[in-house]
């Protein structure tokens, strides 16, 4: 199906830089009984807004579409068995405890900044920086997929809290672009191809090592611009939450941490909010850009789309805590089953990796340093020029 400018999926003004929905109806979602008697949804398919672009789906090597769907169904059943045997603590409790622990660290971080000595002060900066990214990246990402709770109502509350209050962004735009576009059309040119992360006018060293420091400033400015695309009630709510979150951070630095001037407090805000901005930018480009890209009318079925276009990085204690497993070492699993929490993505990782390898499907993995060298070496090709469309013939 051709994409016209008026197609709701094509609203380029709504693209945002977020690895963070309304409440779109995902395909392939079934109620799965949990071990404790509750029920949760295991999403095996992505959100495909409006008329499906799957009319032109093709499969590598000319495999029948039904065979591809059978592979996804078989993998989904294997994953659902793991989910059914998991407790609430495994499904949600582990990740909630990480977010709760981060909140409990906030007082210590602000109090450490009162010290005139270098070590306690730096400990405060490190603490607040890690906490900030845990709440804004991990918390926002889980909330956008409603993976923190099995209640949709509470899911909306947590989305507003983590995305708007903590991250200074707008829920509607962040979830639309991440959940419906990025996940629905992963590595599809013009839709979910991560092109919103590209800044072709910057050279490789500025983009990779200097520009990330501006993320805390750029994020609310982009959010303000995107408010033109939402209803006035949502825009007003977003403005209030953004102001409250930023002002509370500023007020605590002045009255708890003891900063003497507004400029020093603002500088500390920038420092803590950009502490992990470099890996945040890097992770978002490393895991998709440079992998096969597809045309909207020539994309493979979902299991091939995700196995070809998504990459896992190795486990890293700091990034696992701050960003979550689904954004680091379990990104393939997350794209196949986006409604699962970070801990559950880690739990199903052996099942997914073994299945894909058994079926001779790609399971992309690479190290952080290897990807960094790749992007520095091929920056012009990957981040400046338009990516080539992958021919499906011969892909196994």
From TrEMBL:
Q: Which residue ranges run through the membrane? A: 205-227, 234-256
* Basic and acidic residues bias: start-end ranges: 7-18
Q: Which GO terms describe its biological process?
A: fatty acid biosynthetic process
Q: Name one GO molecular function term.
A: oxidoreductase activity, acting on paired donors, with oxidation of a pair of donors resulting in the reduction of molecular oxygen to two molecules of water
User: Which Pfam families does the entry mention?
Assistant: FA_desaturase
**Domain Fatty acid desaturase as annotated: residue spans:** 121-365
Q: Any idea which UniProt keywords this protein has?
A: Fatty acid biosynthesis, Fatty acid metabolism, Lipid biosynthesis, Lipid metabolism, Membrane, Transmembrane, Transmembrane helix
Q: Where is this region: Disordered?
A: 1-65
Q: Does the keyword Transmembrane apply?
A: yes
Q: Which domain of life is it from?
A: Eukaryota
PANTHER family linked: FATTY ACID DESATURASE 2, FATTY ACID DESATURASE 6
The entry's protein name is FADS6 desaturase
What is the scientific name of the source organism? Pampusana beccarii
Q: Which gene encodes it?
A: Fads6
